[in-house]
Each structure stands twice: as structure tokens, then as C-alpha cells.
Inverse folding.
């Protein structure tokens, strides 16, 4: 499912018009599609209100009102901001009236079971005008079910910004595709349950949601004559005296997710903890300086991950600089996420910041990051030619070619120490097990989330710990394998 900015929606409408599909027809498709999508949530004994604005979002409301009236629903159509201003909305209002349907006056004493918010869509410019605020306050006092068309009124379409009087919908039916604010913060929490309504425009956008079907299609099944050399010889530089567990979690997830061989460079103390948890790995005990000097050439590592459980020091930075020159896939996590430049090599460089780390990288507040996760991640990925995985609810995965994806798996049980370490391990394995870099990265993020979803299906979200990935992965991975 694709994601469109308001500018992309406008461009799509203009192109459609140029090709002979009028906005009048698109609005008809929108209203008709909305009717079919919303109907299952309604019953004819409910009293419905459609509140239409002056733009085309309001126009969609007019078409929906006609379909609902024709189907026998008890609907009042009102214009709290005055009658439509756009040509197409006016045309649809004319047809609505010609069909014999009335426009009502707003009556604050009337009660409603369902209110359809067709006030503002992608054309909204925040903050909300005073004239709307009073009406929205009344609407909220109604305690009706609220259905928003396209976007809830009072939230931005492209960013996570929310007006203090914004409508919090129970359901939002978005037209043509998702809008970025569906996956940004705090706006996403105003959408309620979201469905996309197709309006007959070709689907084209460089951003979309990665789905279960995508994972199934891109899942690589092993050949019967496979050997460990085919699935990577990884170097994981992680774990310290204080944080040995981070290396254990990354290593066990990498092994479970299919890496061929893994060496962990860590401290003697950490290895005593890691070894019993992941007996499959081998160890190195080098300083960063020693690693730079010799090990890479001798060992022929094919991929590397660095950062879990490490502090950002000058020596670590020198090692990262060295690793960046080795032309192998490289994952930079936790202590290895720092501001620096990146070479434009052919092997992927993957950064996995959480919003706090990304905020330090960009010198922006976490609020600014969360409001603009998609745009900022994409800008960073394109400018620095890296793959940027911005973790959190609706993890954003931005690629250097300007494309990007939203991950919708995972839940609050992942908000616990160690879940990022597990993801780093899974990424390391995935990148070696799939020739398609995008699919490798996206599948690791998707399945990481599915593990926690599977957990909360059976157990309390409070109780998930990152060592559980190890026992969940066998079952979850099996479910994606084609017979
Ligand atoms: N391809 C598609 O997806 C299609 C979607 N459609 C629908 O069209 C809207 C976008 O319609 P548009 O007319 O561009 O914009 P809106 O209806 O969202 O808003 C414009 C009107 O809103 C007023 N406005 C803007 N900001 C505020 C505010 N803060 N407070 C109050 N009023 C506001 C604005 O007023 P002006 O005085 O500035 O003129 C406009 O009147 C999209 O979301 C879909 O629902 C179409 O059906 C076609 C295809
Ligand atoms: K709306």
C-alpha cells in the first residue's frame, strides 16, 4: 500500500485530469468507494451526520451523503463553514440537490450516532480557524462514532503536527493511499482504524508499506546442497564488561536468522556470558586498534556489525572508518551511530538509530524527529547514501535511492533493552541470506516485529524479553517458507 504527500495527491489529480479522468469522476469514485467501505460499520437505525467543508474533502462528503441517502440511511448533510467553493464540489452538490436531497442547517440540539468528518483533507493549513473550533467542540461532546474522510480534521497530512482541537477519529478512510501523517507522531494516534479506499488512480509512489505478501515473495529458501559458506562469515563487534548481553542477543539472533558463521569480537568477560548462550560463535579479543591492523585481511569476513553494548570513543570511530573502507555490508548500531561521512560504495551501509539517537545525529529535538520521521530519514539516507532504519512504532526504512518503506509489525513489548541488539543480529544474517538488499533489510525488520506480535497474541506485552526472539524465530520463519 502506497503513501502519498499532499503534493503527490495534487499532482496525481492533475495528471488524471490531463489524461481525461476528471476530478468530478475521481470525487464520484471517492464517494462511492467510501460508501462501500463505510457501510459495514453502519446500521439503518443510526442517525448520521456528514459535516462537509468548502473544499474537495467536503465534496467527497456530499457524494457519500447521496449514496447513503439512496441506500435508505438517515443522514443530515451540513456545511459548518459555508457552502462549497471548488467547482467539482459545487457540481456534486447541484446533482445531490437535483436528486431531491436537502442540505440541513446545523442544529446543536440534534443528537447523532455517527458523525462523518469531511471538513478538511489534504488541503488543510493549520492551525484550525476559530470558526471550526466551536463546531468541533460540539462534535466531540456528542460522543458519536467519528469517521474521518482522508485525514482527521486538524492534523497535517505530510507531518505529524496536530492542532490542539484536532478531531480524534474512530475510523479514517484514506483516499488513493496513506498520507505520511498516518505513520508520524502524534498524528497517527488521531486516525483510529485506517482503511484505504481505491479511487481508480494508478498506484505510484516511492514510499509504501512493507507487507506480509512482500516477505513471502522475497523469502529465500535454501538449496538442498547449501553449505555454511553461502550464508556469510560475519564479524560482530559488540559487548563490553558492562553490557555483555547486547552481544549475546545480537549473536543469537544472527545465528537463528540464518548466518553461516559468526565471530564476535568482545571482552573475555563478555564471552564467558555469550558462549553458553550461543555456542555456535567463535571469539576474538582484540582491541579496536588490533582489529584495524590485522584481523580483517586474515579472516575474510563477508559482513560486519558494530555497536551493540559499545561506547562511542575515538578508537571506535577509527575502527568504523576502517570498516567503511572494506567494501562489505556494514551495520552500525548504538555506540557506532555517530555523525560522519560515508563512502559511496556498492555494499550497503545500514544505520539503525532510535529517535533519540537520530535526534543527536541531526541536532533536532525528538519531537521534531517524530513529527517528520519519513522525510528526515529519507533525506539522511539520500544525502549520506546509507540505509537508515529509524526504529520505533512504524519503523521507517529509508534507502539511498529515495525509496522507503514503513513497517507495521511490532508492538509496545519491544520497548525494552535488547530488542535493538536482536535486530542488528537479524540484519547481519539477512543481508547475507538474500541477494536483494532491500528485501533483506525489510524482512529482518518485519519479522523482528512479528516475533513480538506473536508473543502478545499469547502473553502479556509486559513480559516479552529480547532472549525470546531466539525461541520465536524458528516458528515465525517457518510460516514464511513456501512449500
Ligand atoms: N486523488 C485524491 O486523493 C482525491 C481526493 N479528493 C479529496 O480532496 C481533498 C483535497 O481537497 P482540497 O480542496 O484540495 O482541500 P481540502 O478540502 O482538504 O481543504 C480546502 C479547504 O479547507 C479550507 N481550510 C484549509 N485550512 C483550513 C483551516 N485551518 N481552518 C479552516 N478551513 C481551512 C480552505 O479554506 P480557504 O479559505 O483557504 O479556501 C479550503 O476551503 C482530499 O483530502 C480528498 O478528500 C478528491 O475527491 C479528488 C481526488
Ligand atoms: K477530513
Amino acid at each position: 500500500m502506497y503513501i502519498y504527500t499532499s503534493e503527490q495527491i495534487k499532482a496525481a489529480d492533475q495528471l488524471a485530469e490531463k489524461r481525461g479522468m476528471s476530478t468530478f469522476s475521481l470525487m464520484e469514485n471517492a464517494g462511492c468507494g467510501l460508501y462501500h467501505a463505510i457501510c459495514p460499520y453502519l446500521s439503518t437505525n443510526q442517525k448520521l451526520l456528514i459535516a462537509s467543508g468548502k473544499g474537495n474533502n467536503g465534496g467527497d462528503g456530499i457524494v457519500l451523503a447521496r449514496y447513503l441517502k439512496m441506500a435508505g440511511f438517515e443522514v443530515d448533510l451540513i456545511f459548518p463553514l459555508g457552502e462549497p467553493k471548488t467547482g467539482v464540489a459545487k457540481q456534486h452538490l447541484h446533482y445531490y440537490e437535483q436528486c431531491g436531497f436537502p442540505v440541513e442547517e446545523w442544529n446543536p440540539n440534534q443528537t447523532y450516532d455517527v458523525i462523518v468528518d469531511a471538513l478538511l483533507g489534504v488541503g488543510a493549513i493549520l492551525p484550525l480557524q476559530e470558526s471550526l473550533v466551536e463546531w468541533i467542540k460540539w462534535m466531540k461532546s456528542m460522543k458519536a462514532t467519528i469517521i474521518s474522510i482522508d485525514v482527521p480534521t486538524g492534523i497535517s497530512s505530510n507531518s505529524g503536527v496536530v492542532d490542539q482541537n484536532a478531531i480524534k477519529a474512530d475510523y479514517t478512510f484514506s483516499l488513493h493511499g496513506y498520507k505520511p501523517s498516518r505513520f508520524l507522531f502524534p498524528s497517527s494516534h488521531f486516525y483510529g482504524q485506517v482503511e484505504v479506499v481505491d479511487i481508480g488512480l494508478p498506484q505510484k509512489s516511492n514510499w509504501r508499506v512493507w507487507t506480509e505478501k512482500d516477505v513471502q515473495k522475497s523469502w529465500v529458501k535454501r538449496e538442498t546442497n547449501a553449505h555454511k559458506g553461502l550464508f556469510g562469515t560475519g564479524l560482530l563487534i559488540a559487548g563490553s564488561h558492562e553490557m555483555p548481553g547486547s552481544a549475546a542477543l545480537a549473536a543469537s539472533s544472527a545465528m537463528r536468522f540464518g548466518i553461516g558463521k559468526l565471530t564476535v569480537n568482545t571482552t573475555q568477560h563478555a564471552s564467558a556470558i555469550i558462549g553458553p548462550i550461543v555456542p555456535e560463535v567463535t571469539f576474538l579479543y582484540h582491541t579496536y586498534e588490533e582489529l584495524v591492523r590485522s584481523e580483517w585481511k586474515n579472516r575474510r569476513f563477508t559482513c560486519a556489525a558494530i555497536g551493540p553494548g559499545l561506547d562511542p570513543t575515538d578508537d571506535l570511530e577509527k575502527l568504523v572508518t576502517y570498516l567503511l573502507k572494506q567494501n562489505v555490508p556494514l551495520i552500525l548500531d548504538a555506540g557506532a551511530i555517530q555523525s560522519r561521512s560515508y563512502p559511496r560504495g556498492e555494499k550497503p551501509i545500514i544505520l539503525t538509530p532510535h529517535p533519540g539517537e537520530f535526534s543527536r545525529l541531526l541536532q533536532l529535538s525528538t519531537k521534531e524527529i517524530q513529527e517528520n520521521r519519513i522525510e528526515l530519514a529519507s533525506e539522511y539516507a539520500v544525502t549520506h547514501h546509507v540505509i537508515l532504519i529509524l526504529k520505533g512504532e512504524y519503523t521507517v526504512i529509508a534507502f539511498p535511492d529515495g525509496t522507503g518503506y514503513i513497517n507495521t509489525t511490532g508492538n509496545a513489548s519491544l520497548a525494552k533493552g535488547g530488542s535493538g541488539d536482536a535486530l542488528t543480529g537479524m540484519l547481519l544474517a539477512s543481508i547475507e541470506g538474500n541477494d536483494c538488499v532491500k528485501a533483506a533489510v525489510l524482512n529482518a525488520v518485519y519479522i523482528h516485529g512479528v516475533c513480538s506480535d506473536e508473543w502478545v497474541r499469547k502473553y502479556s506485552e509486559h513480559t516479552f524479553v529480547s532472549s525470546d526472539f531466539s525461541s520465536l524465530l524458528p516458528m515465525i520463519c517457518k510460516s514464511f517458507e513456501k512449500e
